[in-house]
Request: fold
Amino acid sequence: MKRTILGLALAAALTGPAHAASLNTLTSGTLTIGMEGTYAPFTYKNEQGVLTGFDVDIATAVAAKLNLKPKFVLTEWSGILAGLQASKFDAVVNQVGVSAERQKSLLFSAPYAYSSAQIIVKKTSTAALDSLAALKGKRVGVGLGSNYEQMLRTAGGINIVTYPGAPEYLADLAAGRIDAAVNDRLLVGYLIKQGWLPVKGAGILDEPQPVAIAMRKNSTALKAAMDRALLQIKADGTYNKISRKWFGQDVSKAN
Reply:
């Protein structure tokens, strides 16, 4: 479907200034996407300096279904959602967990992946850090503004050390400057497989949670188009190919 036809169809269904920004995006030719670029295996630069990763592949496939060219804007995690609100990009594709708090100020696509929070420890660690209770009194690294930070704060009694993104606290963990870290189970598996850092997974802290594309609240038309595109890449096998490339499994389901 041509962008102009899609834009006219959406305009007929949705009226009012609240939809203007997302309709403009759908007819602009470019989809501007915020992501970290330092968060392997989701969004990072390979040895050749090329941006790659699971989320990069998903964003590229979705943009193709919308007949839009993806333009990636790299931003530290600590400022990425604020950057979205400030209209620095149209959407964020960066393993953004869907939470009730975030839904108050952001619009989310249908989930495109599910994962759990997992404790990460140094490979030589013998401590039984397998639960939130076991982390009490420990120095635990986490991304500033992440759902994982909120999880640790809700638990209480944990010495939380916040960082701009995963590379910084994983480096501190490997160096022994913190006792543990909390991040995505899929990230932990990838780190272990690649052998990049002397770390290992410990306790999984929750049930699989949805990950989705984040947009501004007024991006109703863009959300509708994103949801259709996600359905299309699942139906034609593109999603399964991307998921198995990075994780060896289909991560689109909660079980």
Observations:
- Confidence is low (pLDDT under 50) at residues 1-19.
- Residues 103 and 252 are 20 Å apart (CA to CA).
- Residues 3-114+210-247 form a domain with the D-Maltodextrin-Binding Protein; domain 2 fold (CATH 3.40.190.10).
